[in-house]
Structure formats: C-alpha cells, structure tokens
Amino acid sequence: ALRTGLDGLARHDGPLAHGIAMAPGSDAACGLIGGRPVVLLPSRLEDAFAGCHLLVRPCLDRLADATPRRPDLTGPLTAKLSSAVGLAEIALLRRDGAGLRPMAVGDLAWSAIAGADAWCAVPPELEGYAPGETIAAFALDSMS
Hints:
By secondary structure, the protein is of the alpha+beta class. Helix content is 24%, strand content 35%. The chain contains three helices and eleven strands. Strands 2, 5, 7, 8, 9 and 11 form a six-stranded mixed beta sheet that branches. The protein is globular, with a radius of gyration of 16 Å.
C-alpha cells in the first residue's frame, strides 16, 4: 500500500521526503498532491504510531493554526534510555513512582505500546538520557 501511495505522489507533485530518519516509521513519506500535504504511513502498528505522533499530528496542528501539543508529563528516568545517534526515536515510558521507566526505544512491540503510560521522542543528535535525568513526555491516556 505504501508503494502505491508513493507512486501516486510521484504522478503528482512528488514526494518531499521518504525514508525519514525516525524509528519506528522510517518507511513513512510525505509530499504534495495538488498542493495539499499528504503523509503516507506504513501499515505496521508501531510504524503508524510513530508517524502519527511525529508527522501527522504536528502537520494537522500547523494546518489548523493550532497551538502544538506540549509534553504533559515530566519526571526523572529510573533507568538509562539508550538511543541510536542519527535517528529520531520514539521511546515508550511507564510511570514508576515519581519517575519514568523506559520500556522500549525504536523497536516497539505491541505489548510495550499497550503497557506504556507515555512516549517521548529522542532527538537524532542524542544517544539517549542518563538515569535520573528529568525528561518531558506525552501521556498516552490523553488525546488532547
């Protein structure tokens, strides 16, 4: 289905980005059709999850001239959160007392998504975060 979507973009204004440096979701793509923005998401749940949070939501906020959603949860990490340099990676977190415990980074299992309380994006220039470092995250129980 993604290949079909990419072919459709190529017949119109063309893809602006494909093979985006994010994990999961590196197969996501975005472009224009008739001057309108289009985001193509892979069919795997974890890839679509990342694409929705990192691409679709910010795009919709911008198009609607809405205030971008801000992280609504902060806390110290109860364990190291490791990430690959060069990729924006989604990290799933679970509340652990007053802190946040990393559950998965980049490669997200369905069970980790189901058990997570929050998520954050680790910027591509970082190798992650040290234990005790306070991070900001987005609660998964809130769609606001």
